[in-house]
Each structure stands twice: as C-alpha cells, then as structure tokens.
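note to self: dont lose this again. the chain is below, predicted strucutre after it. 314 aa total, dont forget to put it in the shared folder this time
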Amino acid sequence: MPTELKTGVTLAERFLVLEPLGQGGQGSTWTARDLTNESKVVVKVLSLATVEDWKADERFRREIAILSQLSHPNVPRVVDAFEGSDGQTYLVQEFIDGRNLLQLLEAGEVWSDEKIRKVLIDVLQVLEYLHRHSPPIIHRDIKPSNIIRDTTGRHVLIDFGAVRLASTSATTVVGTSGYLAFEQLQGQAHPATDFFGLGMTLIHLATGLHPHDIPSHRGQLQFESLANLSPKVTQSLRWMTQPLVEDRPQSVEQLLDFRPEQLLDFRPKESSALVHHQPRDLAIRPPKHLLLVVALTALAIFVAAAVAAVLLLM
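---
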C-alpha cells in the first residue's frame, strides 16, 4: 500500500515530513527535514491510484533523470531520489526560501521595467544552461508560479515535471493554458518554446492580467498600452511571443543581442535594410529660386542659338 504522507512520517529513514506545499490530482509536494544535516528540503511524490497516472509516472521519472544531471544556482539541487518500500518514487530537492511570482503578483507587487528585466536575465541564464545541452533540455511549463524569488532576490526556475529533450517527440500535450506555445499542441518542443512561456509570464506580471484576458490580434497579445515598459523590453517580449516558432529568437545569445529596430513590424529584411541603412544625402543643394534662374538662362541661350541658325539659312 502507498505510504500516506503526513506530518511526522519519516521517509527512507532520513526525511522527516513537515507540512504540505501543494496538492494536485496526480501527487503532492511536502516540506521535510533532512535528518542527516537538519536542512530543509522538498519532497515530491505522485499518486498512482489510476491507470491514467502511468503517463505521469513516466514524466516524473524523466524529470528525476534530467534534474539529477543538472547543476545550476537557479535550479533547485536534487538531494535524493528513491523508490520507497511502497513502490512509489520520491524526489527530494533543496528547499528554496521565497515566494513564487504569482504569489507576489497576487499580493499586490507592482512590476516595474527594472523588475521585469531582472526576472528576464535570471531565467535566461537558466535557459542558456539548459538549451546548450545536447540535445537541448526544454522546460515546457514556464509560468509565474514556477519561478521563485528567494530571500536574496535570485529567481529560481522550479517544477520540471513537463521537461523534455528537444530531439524527442511527444503525444501528450503538456503545459499550462495561456503560456503554452502553439507548437506544443502538436507535440513539438524547441528552445523557442521556452522563450514563449517566459515572454507570456513577463507580460502577465507587467500588465497584472492573465494572457487570456489581454486582447490579441492574429495570435499576438496587444499588451503594450497595458504595461509601463521600456521600448526594448516591450519589443523583446513581442519577439519572444510570436505565434510561429520560427519567428521567435532561436537562442539566448540571439535574444540578448537583440535591438528593437530589428523587429521593424516584421517587414521583409530587404526592405528593412533599405529603410534603416540607406545613407542620408548630405549634398548641399542650391536654393530653388537660383535653380529657376539657371533654367531660364539656359532656355534663353537655346532660343537665341535657334534664331541665329535660322537667319544663317536665309
């Protein structure tokens, strides 16, 4: 029989369960104390009560396998992973002391351009690390509740339950509505998929509105007038949330090198170059009245020459 997690239960003779952090239809997350060093940790376990949960178990085991390979200051460290005597699999990670961005938003925090930039840079550092793996590791579920700001101001990316390698295919749609990129509906995942989720997250924070509540046109959120952001951040978010994956930045490096004028309302590159790179004509032009005098003089000379030619023929 599966172990019923509750306060006071000890797992693997090492982790003393403290209190619940979250409960869902497929499992639960609890805080616990590591009895070997008295540190606080997070324990995640799935509930395998129904046949449908086996797909979730597959994703959970993939999450453990991938997380166990990672070492980044903005990703919770894996402390342990084990199968209990009840046959259930447990994942234990370091505890991040802080609140997630959705909690901060709901508590009334105002998201300035500077704060949005800080989240953007912190999470891009994680994505650059994940995406440079071979094959790239795609988070697939970036949203406000999956980013924690700790007590030092660092932003940590959590919940890798939807994680996938970019080279593999999927038949199950995983992600959260409002932050889900269009290609995910077709079982695809690319580095640009994570940029879409991060862009939608930052738009949610900057406007205070869920993506579903923001007007859109041809799949593009019309958020500019709803947020107080600098032109560069605004255009970066617009680029990150393009409907088509090929229209988004393809790497963190490309995004960080971005200049807002590159978007140019997505006009063809050839016309973009003509509009923005054609050198200005700095030649000194004579006044218009002077041009008129020159033209009349030339006409008079022409008429005089014509009259002279006629007289010679007479």
